[in-house]
Amino acid sequence: MGTISLHLVKNMSTIYQRQNEPGMVGAQKAARCLYTKAKRIAGINYFGTLFFAVLFSVLATLIQDNKIDYWSFAVTIIVFLANFGFDYFINKTKALAAGLQQYFDLVVFDIPESRKYLTHGIPDISKRIEVIAKYKDKKVGKIEDWYDNYSGLSKYNQVLKCQEESIRWDAELRKKYIWLLSVFCVLEVLIVISFAIHGTGLVNGFAVAVWVLPILKVALTVIVNLVKDIGRLKDLENEKAQAEVIKQDETKLFESVCDLQHLIYEHRKQCCLIPDSFYNFFHKKDQARENKIREETLKEENQDESDDQSEN
């Protein structure tokens, strides 16, 4: 985005307006595309590992040939090592997406660029232009109105409510997803072990059982990351609670939302990726929750203003 365009964005009156400026929509679209790309890489890694595990489990069980067993050992090692390569590309793509989201938030929230600790993960302007241009024609669903309309609140109270909204969406999805993934992990391991038990001989059984390793590597990496995510989200909740206490003081609140924004970026950069299908399944219910929270928040704000006027 050029200097003039950025200046115009920041002079629009509210977050709800600024987020729908073309440059901001482009940044969010590019971030979503990058997250989708990272999820696709993670999907190839997960289902590729599962495919080879099932394939060699079946082959080693049905075909009594030592060559199958040896190939099973060899492919297990290859797949296991390949998992680390997939992790590298997933993290690299995710970090770029998180940087674009941080850029979007800082501009939309109108947080001064002088806060250098908030901008260190943002790609430079040439990289932003390149990535936004690359994905500008992609169909990614609704990007506009990313944050709900809290225009009736003061400037940094608007920021705080948008940050809280982002944290809630993320936390609720992760709490559900970790249980689903844990169940799948247990089932997959049990299936492989059952094939191993039905194998003929020690070598054959071990050739099947060894596939538990890459399956656990992929599944446990995600589960461990989800546990870390939930831990970081608790830190975000604590920071959010502190901000709520001082929300009447805009100067103190500004410092608090900056700290909160830094934690949000760090979480996005490191967080476990959740499939779009899982997000879409709960989207309608979660959006209804957010609409209710927004209505209650604005109602409370209006009531507080009425009480203040009455006292005066």
Characteristic key phrases:
312 residues; mainly alpha; disordered C terminus
Descriptive report:
The chain has 312 residues and is mainly α. The protein has one domain (3-140, 152-301). It has ten helices and no strands. The protein has helices at residues 3-10, 15-18, 22-62, 66-108, 125-135, 155-197, 202-209, 212-245, 250-270, 276-311. Helix 3 runs antiparallel to helix 4 (66-108), helix 3 (22-62) runs parallel beside helix 6 (155-197) and helix 3 runs antiparallel to helix 8 (212-245). The radius of gyration is 24 Å and the shape is elongated.
Poorly predicted ranges (pLDDT <50, ≥5 residues)? 1-12, 305-310
* Helix proportion: over 70%
Class by SSE composition: mainly alpha
Tally the beta strands.
0
Any idea what the radius of gyration is? 24 Å
First CA to last CA: what distance? 46 Å
Number of domains: 1
Shape: elongated
- Written as H for each helix and E for each strand, in order along the chain, the element string is HHHHHHHHHH
In DSSP terms (H or I, runs of 4 or more residues), the helix count works out at 10
Main beta-sheet annotation: none
Tell me, rounded to a whole number, the average pLDDT. 81
What portion of residues belong to β-strands?
under 5%
Summarize the structure.
By secondary structure, the chain is mainly α. The protein has helices spanning 3-10, 15-18, 22-62, 66-108, 125-135, 155-197, 202-209, 212-245, 250-270, 276-311. The protein has ten helices and no strands.
